[in-house]
Amino acid sequence: MQALHLLDTPEYLEAIALWHQGQFWEVHEALEPLWRRLSGPERELTHGIILLAAALHKAHSSQSGGWRNFHKALGHLKNLPATYQGIRVSALIEETRQALQAGPGKIPPFPLLSTLD
């Protein structure tokens, strides 16, 4: 069985484009069908990213709700390496934290490695 490279999936390609546009609810919608089919660390990564996007979306109406989703995301991402599947996980967490601290409207980058290992 060939390893799945998440960044090659249509779901991730769409989600990253939506993230850059600040359409965080749509990021969740794009990734959820894939997340349901995944297992192991790929599932945890995808669930964490969905929750980070939900945090950024929710922060527009409730800062506390945004932070609540952020902390839920950490529970899914904490056991992953700093970079995984071409995504700089630690940097994504920190960029999202900074965006939440800055307040609604800040669109954090989605940090990727320049090439997959």
Explain what you see:
This protein is mostly helical and 117 residues long. It has helices at 10-20, 24-37, 40-58, 63-77, 89-102, and strands spanning 83-84, 87-88. α2 (24-37) packs antiparallel against α3 (40-58) and α3 packs antiparallel against α4 (63-77). β1 and β2 (87-88) form a beta hairpin. A two-stranded antiparallel sheet has the order 1-2. The model has no long low-confidence stretch (mean pLDDT 93).
Estimated structural class: mainly alpha
Read across the widest sheet, the strand sequence of neighbours is: 1-2
Individual helix count? 5
| SSE run | HHHHEEH
Layout of helices and strands:
Layout: H1 10-20, H2 24-37, H3 40-58, H4 63-77, E1 83-84, E2 87-88, H5 89-102
Antiparallel strand pairs: 1-2
What's this, in brief?
The protein has 117 residues and is mainly alpha-helical. Helix content is 62%, strand content 3%. A hairpin with a 2-residue loop joins strand 1 and strand 2.
List keywords for this structure.
117 residues; mainly alpha; two-stranded antiparallel ribbon; 5 helices
